[in-house]
Amino acid sequence: MRAVLQRVTGASVRVGGEVVAEITRPGLVALIGVTHDDDDATAAQLAKKIAELRIMADEKSVSDTGAPVLVISQFTLFAVTKKGRRPSWNLAAPGAVAEPLVAAVARGIADFGVPVETGLFGAHMEVALVNDGPVTIILDTDQM
Question: Catalytic site residue 74?
Answer without folding.
Answer: yes
